[in-house]
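Homework-ish question, so no full write-ups if that breaks the rules, but can someone show me the predicted structure for this set?
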Amino acid sequence: MDLLQQYGPALLRGFGYTILCWALGTVFAMALGLVIALSRHYGPRWLGWILQIYIEVIRGTPFLVQLFVLYYGGPLIGLRLDALPAGLLGLTLYGSPYFAEIFRAGFRAVPLGQLEAARAIGMTEPAIVRRILLPLSMVSALPALVNFSIILTKETVILSIITVPELMYQVSRMSAETFRFVEANLVLALFFWGLVEAISRLGRRFESRVTKHLIERT
Amino acid sequence: MQASAVEIQKVNKHFGPFHALKDVDLSIPPGRVTCLIGPSGSGKSTLLRCINFLEPYDSGEIRIDGRLMGYDAPGRKMGGRALREMRRSIGMVFQQFNLWPHMTARENVAEGLIRVRGMSRADAATRAAAALAKVGLADKMDNHPSRLSGGQQQRVAIARAIAMEPRLMLFDEPTSALDPELVGEVLSVMKTLASEGMTMVVVTHEMGFAAHVADRVAFMERGELVAADTPAAILHQPQDPRIQSFLRTYHERNSF
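A: Not a homework solution, just the prediction itself:
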């Protein structure tokens, strides 16, 4: 009980940071992933190759390493960031190729005819993307988007190593100061479980709304 | 003689090594129905899709109301804006309907009016309702495509095209994906459209429609336009042995 009184506020604050990092990181990574997917879809071939290399490099290296390079290597090329912005940038860069691939798969699943129908009446490509391509790609992409967002919740713990004061950081401090490793990590697990449960519920509700008329039910 | 609505001259199209259209010449008269018939794989759909440049042709000319489609000059494709502007006056109806499943029937029809014609939502909704009423679907306006039969979906697709007030309508096998008992409702909407003087090009396997509604019938085989004439000349007194053999197969398949 004393323990909770002493560390409760810090843990809650840490959880707040965790949610903040996850939410912003997911939104930014998804946005960048969408830009990458659209650039590969519509852009010139050389841009596609560059983005392909970017995707391979990020997906081929551990997040931990990327974060170290960004935070400790960044200053060598004049990129000096505080822990939180560095962490958010790291999450964005790390998540974007996965989101890009999910969007790409979603685009491919949209029947060509529905895009041709839009072109045939003279819609502009940006309007087609916004009104037809993106909504229809969600049928196949949405479950994967939710899934990867859930994976990202747990990647936020890695931000603790560059001193972002999120939950893992607070839990490590608590266990180092009190040697109550089990309790501290139990708290961590419970918090994450709750967060993931909430996200997946939201995701399912969103999914059924978005795909209401898109999936043939027999 | 009135100028053609669509003038096709020496059009060629290749898909890799496959020569899909071979020096095709065809005039589409305005205010009339032209049916394209022929065996599958003969290039009918490809030719139709070249007219609105969904399929870019390699050489030759397609002129719509005198204006070259798809190219500024031979070999130089026109910009997106010019292409969209030309497509605005050409309606297209597809074999697979291609309605947007996340929108209601009315939203499907209104989308082009809002995005392409720049109409307000309210005006577009009114116009969409009128177009749907015209194809007999006033009571299905708020249904999504998944709640409509194939015939109803295809009629929504026709409404989507005519709401844009096109000068030319292209139909790509509009009844081929329909159950036989639903074909009639789609054909009757097309007949009404024809009787109002719409210029129509119809790729079809419905010989009955070609015989009774078309003003001209063009027969294609292996990428060549074999003959274009009145329905009677093509369907009842065909001179070319390729047409005779096609019709023989058709009659054999449809007799019982």
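Now go work out the reasoning yourself. Hint: Chain A has a mean pLDDT of 89.
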